[in-house]
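ugh ok fine here u go
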Amino acid sequence: MPIQWFPGHMNVTKKAIIERIKEIDVVIELLDARLPGSSANPMLAELTGNRRKLKVLNKQDLADPARTEAWLAWYRAQSDTGAIALDAGETAPAQRLIKACRELAPHRGGMDKPLRVMICGIPNVGKSTLMNTLVGKKAAKTGDEAGVTRIEQRINLASDFYLFDTPGMLWPKITVEKSGYHLAASGAVGRNAYEDEDAALELLASIKGSYAHLLAARFKLDDVDAIPTTHDEVLLETIGRKRGAVMSGGRINITKAAEVVLHDFRAGILGRITLETPEQFEAWWAEGQAIEEARRLAKEARSKAKKGSRQAAQEEAWLAQDEDDESADADAEVDANSGEAGQGPSADH
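structure:
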C-alpha cells in the first residue's frame, strides 16, 4: 500500500516558503545521502522557481561513497545547481556552505547586498542538527521523530549572509511508491503512516542485491551468494531467527525482526548504504508520473461520463415532460371539442 503522510503543519511551512522565497537568492535543500532522490521534495522545485539551488547530501558518512559521488555529479549537471556532501558529525560546515552559496550567487555580497539563503528539507533529514552545528549551540530542537521543527528561524552565518531555516516538509502526495518506502525506512515519515514489516521488507528488497555482504556480516547469514535471490519474507524470518526474535512454538516475531532491520539501517550499523542510484530514481519517477497521468485521465473520463449521464437523464426528463405536456394538450383539445359538440342545436322529432 503506497505511503502518504502530510500533517497539517506542513501546509503552514508551504505558505511560509511562498512568502519568504520572494527575497531569497539561494535555496539550500538538505537531502539524505542514503536516498537523495526520494528525499528531494518535488514541490519545493515548484515553490522556489528559478532560484539558484544548493543540494546538500547530509549523512554521507552513512551512505555508499561511490553512489554519493554519482549523485553529486547528477545534481551538478542541472542548471543553476550546486551540490556538496556533509558528514552528520562534521564540526565546521558553515564555511563550506557559505563558499558554495557565494559561488552560486556571486552578484550578492556586502552589507548593501547581503546574500539571503533559505534552507529546506524533509523531516528527519538532519537539518536541526546541522543548524545547531552552524550556530555552535543548541538553537534548534532535534529528535528522531519526523516533523520536530515547527517555526522559521534566521541565523547570520556572516555579516552579509542571512540563513533562513524552515520546518521540514514532505511531498503533499508521494507519487513514487518506492520512494515512500525508502522515506519510511529512513524515518522521514510518521510511524502511523506505515507498518514496520512492510518498510523492512521493501528495505531488504532494495539492499539485498548490492549489499548482500553487509547483511551477511551483520546478521551472521551463512550463504552470502544466496541472499540476492532469497525471498524478502524468508530473508526477514532468517534475520529474526538469527537475532533471537523467536516466539513459542518456534514462530518468528516478524514485527520484532522488522524493528531490528529498520533500527540497524537508520543507525548505520548495517554499513554504508545508499538505497537508490540516479538512474533508478529517474525510472521510478517516470513510472510514477505515468501512473498519475493515467489516474488523472481516468478521473476526467469518469467525470465526463457522470456529467453525460446526468445530462442524458435531464434530457430524458425534459422529453418525458414534453410528452406529458403534449398529451395534456391533446386531452384538453378533445374535451373542448366534445363540449362544443354537446352545445349544438337539438334534432327535431
